[in-house]
Specification:
Blueprint: E1 2-8, E2 25-29, H1 35-41, E3 49-54, E4 57-59, E5 70-75, E6 98-100, H2 105-113, E7 118-120, H3 126-135, E8 139-142, H4 145-148, E9 156-158, H5 164-174, E10 194-197, H6 199-202, H7 208-213, E11 217-220, E12 226-227, H8 233-245
Parallel strand pairs: 1-5, 6-7, 6-8, 8-9
Antiparallel strand pairs: 1-2, 3-4, 3-5, 10-11, 11-12
Helix pairs in contact: 2-5
Length: about 250
Amino acid sequence: MAKATFHFYGELNDFLPANKRQVEIEHFFGEKGSIKDMIESLGIPHPEVDCIEVNGASVDFSYIVQDGDVINVYPISAATKTPILSLVRPQPPKVIRFVLDIHLGKLASSLRLLGFDTLYRNDYDDAELAAISSTQMRILLTRDKGLLMRSAVTYGYYVRNTDPQQQIVEVLRRFNLFKLVSPFARCLRCNGLLKPVTKQAIIDKLPENIQRDVKEFHCCQGCAQIYWKGSHYEKLQQFIDGVLDCNR
């Protein structure tokens, strides 16, 4: 049997069993295979990897692992901390857009609330999610590491936190998005952009008390949902302020 020695750094250890974290892992194999396949066989999704060093040299995912190789695998967070050239990190998408799996519905609503283009449906299957991420160059956010391992996925991230408010802060930090926050710009229901609309244009769709007491309205360009600053507005604003405070 051939043997390669792996060392995974930083948050890549989140995917490893406790007894294999922050230590050298001796990986035995019979048939030679690509380093991408071996990394994923050990539990690490490829979109989480920033760069790979084999015997002191940078390699890409197609490298065929050899007997005796010493392999260091670094996470995205190490991108500015290691001098190693990355041959696996894709060029970042020009526009930050997301697609989320079924487990992240509340996170999807939070991202839309903060103005980010976010696709979410509770009936997407894994193949659809991977295809959408690939064809639309959307970052796939998921709690399913097997989904991130699909070959079609280029941009993806495994959300560590399970609490929705912590999840939104985690994602904003991971992708450095705090300065791009634009609250109340998107429809929470369908992800469409909101535009101002006059009261007269939609007055027949409003309850009588809203017709009387509210002056400013926005309408979704996708589903025609109407928004105004109702009793829920203050609670949403407090949520937004709490998220933004995490970057101060």
